[in-house]
Amino acid sequence: MGESATTSYSSSPSGYGIGPPWLFRGRALYQLHLVKAEIARAFIPKELKLVEAFGYTLGGLFLAHYDDSPAGVFDELVVIAGIVWNPPTSCAWASRVLVNSHEACRHGRKEIGLPSHVAIFSKRDAKASDQPLYKQRTSFIHSKPKEHSEIQVLEMEDYSQTSICNISLPFAGDRWMGPKIRISLPSFSGQTTHNPQLLKYSCQIEC
Length: 207
What we know:
InterPro entries: ADC_dom_sf, NDX1-like. With about 210 residues, this protein is mainly beta.
């Protein structure tokens, strides 16, 4: 399932220094996936109990382009490893966060306890008859559309680059395809080298 349009988390003037809540405006797609529990557990702290059924938990990805945020204009890809119990409800756990903003990366690591990394987001608009932009295999969110946007994400580490994924997004007019949604997404984070404590935060998402 995919969603797209305008995404906002919370309200605040620009700049991280003013303090939470922070507001991010742009467009986003939230794609849900079933993840094998044994794979998800490798990314989730042992003291947290995984929400699972028949050997699977619910993970996914959150892809966003922000036109206005405390860090300015930037792109973000969040990989959700799975859902963990937080009685009486549950929380998401992000196994990787990729952004093309050094400021957003630093804030995510130190303040939110996210596994953030700096990345390059390469994009182009294409038609079904066009040759793929990248030699690697490209994954389509839906069946191959007539008009779509191709996005490649490369993680940066010092002077090296690692290809993380290629994504093809279908268009609905001038925006990404998908129904509009409004959700509250409570999440756990932390236990990283930059922020060793276990943290909890919540995103109010409209997309």
